[in-house]
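[User]
If only I could read backbone structure tokens as easily as an amino acid sequence. I have put the entry right below:
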Amino acid sequence: MKKLLSVIGMLAAFYLPQSQAQEVGRVISSIPIIQQVAVPRQVCTQQQVTTQPPKSGAGALMGAIAGGTVGHAIGRDGLGTAIGMFGGAILGDKIEGAPPPEVKNVQTCSTQNFYESRTVAYNVTYEYAGKQYIVQMPQDPGPSVRLQITPVVSSNPNYNYPPPPPLPAASAVPPPGSAPQSW
């Protein structure tokens, strides 16, 4: 049981917060630290593009039919029909001609980096207990900075700790060897 209580006592001493005091230091200066930061942005542009649409093929088809008919009427054999179809297709394609070019608006987008100046931290000079200190902070603390004061035990074995404060003069405990008094 004693062992269990000593383990619980050690764990409680380990996990309990250490003695700390909350203090305030007076800010003397707060200088922003500014860096150039790349910020990606999408940039889009509009361009007019001219395209030539394909032919429909209707002129070549109609010319082949007409040429095949004429060739068959003249030659009355398969060779005349074939030559007529071939010539008619070429002539019909030239008569159809090229369609007018089409103009389209095309949007092109890309990601570009733009650089901006941004405050990333502050170099803060503050005064506490008559001394000046410099620290880097993520935001501007304003006119004062809250300080967390934590006592540190020295690991130096030669360190002489100050003597404890004297006990009060009037003590309710009688000196050793004295007899209890009845009043």
Observations:
- Residues 11-16 have pLDDT under 50 and may be disordered.
- The beta strands are 21-51, 102-128, 131-137, 144-149.
